[in-house]
Amino acid sequence: MNVQENLDKLWKDCKRVLKVARKPDGSEYLDFSKITALGIVVIGVIGFVIVLISQLIGL
C-alpha cells in the first residue's frame, strides 16, 4: 500500500467512528466521573501505602 491509500483508509475509518459516536447523557457522564474519581483515589491510596511502608523500613 502506498501513502495515499493509507490516508484514504484512515479518513474512511475516522468518518465511520464519528458517525456512530454520540454525546453521553447525564447519567453516563456521572458514571464515568465516579469511575475516574475512584481510580484516582485507588492509585493515591496505593502510592500512600508504598511511601508509608518505605518510610517504616527506612528506605
TrEMBL record:
One Pfam family matching this protein: SecE
Set out the biological process GO terms recorded for this chain's protein.
Answer: intracellular protein transmembrane transport; protein secretion; protein targeting
Give the protein's function: Essential subunit of the Sec protein translocation channel SecYEG. Clamps together the 2 halves of SecY. May contact the channel plug during translocation.
Record note on quaternary structure: Component of the Sec protein translocase complex. Heterotrimer consisting of SecY (alpha), SecG (beta) and SecE (gamma) subunits. The heterotrimers can form oligomers, although 1 heterotrimer is thought to be able to translocate proteins. Interacts with the ribosome. May interact with SecDF, and other proteins may be involved.
Q: Which family does it belong to?
A: Belongs to the SecE/SEC61-gamma family.
In terms of SUPFAM superfamilies, this protein maps to: Preprotein translocase SecE subunit
GO CC annotations? endomembrane system; plasma membrane
Supply the InterPro entries for this chain. Prot_translocase_SecE_dom_sf (IPR023391), Translocase_Sec61-g (IPR008158), Translocase_SecE/Sec61-g (IPR001901)
Q: What is its main location?
A: membrane
Q: Where in the cell is it found?
A: Cell membrane; Endomembrane system
Q: Which GO terms describe its molecular function?
A: protein transmembrane transporter activity
| Keywords, alphabetical | Cell membrane, Membrane, Protein transport, Translocation, Transmembrane, Transmembrane helix, Transport
Q: What is this protein called?
A: Protein translocase subunit SecE
Per UniProt, what is the membrane topology?
A: Single-pass membrane protein
Q: Which residue ranges run through the membrane?
A: 35-57
Instruction: Tell me the NCBIfam families matching this sequence.
Output: PRK09400.1-4 (NF006909), secE_euk_arch (TIGR00327)
